[in-house]
Amino acid sequence: MSILFGNDSRKIQVPKKNPYGRRLDCTVFLNINGAYDITLNDTGTIAYIAAAGELVIINMTDPLNPEITGRLGGIGTGRQIEVQNGIAYMTARADGLYIIDVSNAQAPHLASHYDTVELATGVFINGDYCAVTCRHLGVEIINVKDINHPVHICNVLAGEAQSVFIDGNYMYVGCWVQREIMIFDISNPYTPVHCSTCELDGYGDGIFIKENLLYAATGHHSRRLYNRRAYQFYEFTTNEMFSDGYGCGHGIEIFDISNKSKPVFLSRLKTPSFFMSSNDMWDVIVSGFYAYMADSYSGLFVFDIRKPCSPLYETYSRLPIHPVHNLMPQPPIQQHCCPVNGIAVGQGFLYAVSNCTGLHVFKIDNARPVIPPIKYNPTNIKPIEFKNGSKMLECAFPGKNHGEIEFYMDSQVHGVIFFNGYAVIAAGGEGLYVLNPNNNYSIQSHCRTKGFAMDIKLHKDHIYVVEGKGGLSVWKLQNANLVRIGEFITGPAARQIVIYHELDIAAIQLGNGGVQFIDITKPSKPQDLKKVMDTGMMYYKNIIDCLYKGRYAIIAPLGPKTIFFDLIDKNDIKFSYGEIRDLCPIEDGIIVYRNRLFTVSCGKIRYEDYNGEIYIDSIELKGWPRIINDDSYLINRCDGIISHYDIQNMENIRFIKQIDTKGHPEDIIYHEGRLWIPCGHRGLLSVKK
User: Fold this and answer.
1) Alpha-carbon gap, residue 148 to 101, rounded angstroms
2) Which of 283, 273, 293, 266 is nearest to 205 (CA)?
């Protein structure tokens, strides 16, 4: 018996070969805080890193001695970055898109900051056009020929869009939870045409196109797992979970896209099974005979793709063990290492960045620089017409209009209030406009804001505006002119404001996961009450715009539970989790009606009665609810549809009509017999009630 192996014979103790190839060791490391993505210039001598609140530029002339040469701070935390002709395009989720002139690597400067329609996630630049993925609101296509004045072209829905790639006149979108790659013909950038869809066996993210082959990076769960929350409260992994595909969606998949209308699946290679619901991003880059994959917590992998129908594992590497081990709400399966968030390939080297560590350099002799994609050459670009002194593309909103466009400008309309005979509009990157409704909504005055004017509310005789990175501002309206009288710096981007008039308290949505409560008893000096930054994933305007039972503020994030904040004691705001679960902030929502909770969830209604919760077996419902008198309006920002219902009799809800806004509606305000709808790039719509 062998005392080393506990067996009768050493002969049966033969180590198995690692299926992922040889281990690749890091050659050089450079500490950079919050590094999420990396890209190189055309020569591979300069690296650009999207980091925590800054862009970092590194001289890579000698990859074994990387040297930071430039920085631009004071910007949002980067998610993805692309560079073309000395200009960097960096997405920053709730902070939108930053366009930065990096032609001087020692002194980068901001060219413009663009207000995207939702959380700016993926980015790709090709020619004069930039594509930004905005999660559930699809892909926004932007003309960046003038980098100082980017222009919105269109928005195309594409599932939960995570990453994007443009090759020639085709756009490829990684659809996350749908487990798909969607292919669009964008010969006319104003009217993209869906060509086909590639089904994946994992959540879709990174994409690379080379020589009519599509490479997709996937993660999380296999397509076999239909219920992604099935094992949410498990503390261990089980055979049942693996059989269902839990954590088994990681790897790369290859498709032949010679015929864009009929892509052909060729092969897939799986990387280790894993599940962790943060830093859940995956990327793939193809260069030469190899594909390079960033697989987050599992590390990076290199595949030999000389035979696309039968690729091979080449090598892999994992980063150091993660310093924090209590980040696992579900069983992670594998050892918890620092994630690889982004990668880039240069001559003889592979570069990887992690938000936990920084830049890692790997020497790979056969690595080659990436060949740029086919240049995008759009055709059939439509002429423009003018409205309200600003340009509007005549083909951007095809079909019959439902409602009248009362105001339109190059930026977005995020909110409107009516006060003293005027309309005041929060217009994103354009700031604030004061209009005269009695004179064809002519512009009376215009004020720039420090950040994007994302939302606006009226309280008593003061106007409150949230300005993205500019925080909260307070204004007085004097003879059609706005006068700034107070402000409150929030830190993370302020994206929504709700005012509880009875309590003189404002709630502000911060970024995509926080809320700030402020005492506005003294408008000129708003006071901090409470700040919570772990509310769960929040898209846009997920704070319910009213109090429940006169004391509870409600937050409805994308997550397992709704959050209730008790505001009755300003000096001691407490919060608790409700039992309402699985609300999608795009198609579901909550409102307070007749002092009861009125909830749309999974297409049905439930509301709290005195005897408990009642589920209504109603017609199919979809959208964020707003109630005006006894009518309910369900707002769906994705498809632009507002559905109108009569809910006086909760046992017999009656459908009245639909309003197709052709845009992304954000709210409904009732004023003088009309519904006023801020619709982003569609402008301000009014509809007769």
Assistant:
1) 10
2) 283
**Of 74-83, 110-119, 486-495, 680-689, the least confident:** 680-689
Tell whether the model's pLDDT for residue 431 goes beyond 90.
yes
- Collapsing DSSP to helix, strand or coil, 514 comes out as strand
What CA–CA distance (Å, rounded) separates 664 from 579?
A: 30
Element (H, E) at 632: strand 631-635
How many whole angstroms from its chain centre is CA 682? 20
Point out which residues pair with 387 in neighbouring strands.
390
User: Does residue 365 lie in a domain region?
Assistant: no
Report the alpha-carbon distance of residue 388 to residue 405 in Å, rounded.
Answer: 10
The answer as to whether 41 is a domain residue is no
Give residue-wise pLDDT tens across range 168-193.
999 999 999 999 999 999 999 999 99
- Report residue 631 CA to chain centroid gap: 31
CATH number at residue 592: 2.130.10.10
Could you tell me the sign of the dihedral formed by the alpha carbons of 385, 379, 113, 462, in that order? positive
- Domain final residue, candidates 315, 349, 383: 349
Q: What is the dihedral of CA 545, 548, 551, 553, to 10 degrees?
A: -40
Strand partners, 141: 131, 154
Instruction: Tell me which residue has tokens 């300003």.
Output: 570
Can you say how many angstroms the Cα of residue 492 is from the centroid of all Cα atoms in its chain?
15
Together in a domain, 660 and 515:
yes
Residue 10 in domain: no
Among 303, 322, 349, give the residue marking a domain's end: 349
- pLDDT reading at 339 higher than 80: yes
Q: Model's pTM, two decimal places?
A: 0.93
- Strand, coil or helix: 242: helix
Q: Yes or no: say if 637 and 588 are a contact pair by the CB < 8 Å rule.
A: no
Is residue 223 a contact partner of residue 199, using CB atoms and an 8 Å limit? yes
| Cα 371 from chain centre | 28
Whether 513 maps to a domain, the answer reads yes
Residues 310-325: what's their mean pLDDT? 90
Contacts of 243 (CB under 8 A, 6+ apart): none
Whether residue 419 sits in one domain with residue 328: no
Written as six digits, the tokens of 29 are 């490391």
Same domain, 314 and 448: no
Euclidean distance between CA atoms 545 and 357, whole angstroms:
40
Number of domain units in the chain: 2
- Please, are residues 214 and 255 in contact by the beta-carbon 8 Å criterion? yes
What range does the domain containing 216 cover?
162-173+203-349
